[in-house]
Amino acid sequence: MSATDRPWKLVLLLAGIFLAGMVSGALVMIRIGREMAVRRPLPGQWAPQQMRRLAERLSLSPEQQETLRPIVRRNMQDLARVRNYTFQETGSILERMEREISDKLTPEQHAKFEQMNKEWRERLRRQFGPGGGMRGRHGEPPIGPPSGPPPEKPADKPPGG
Question: Using CA atoms, how far apart are residues 65 and 48, in angstroms rounded to an integer?
Answer without folding.
Answer: 11
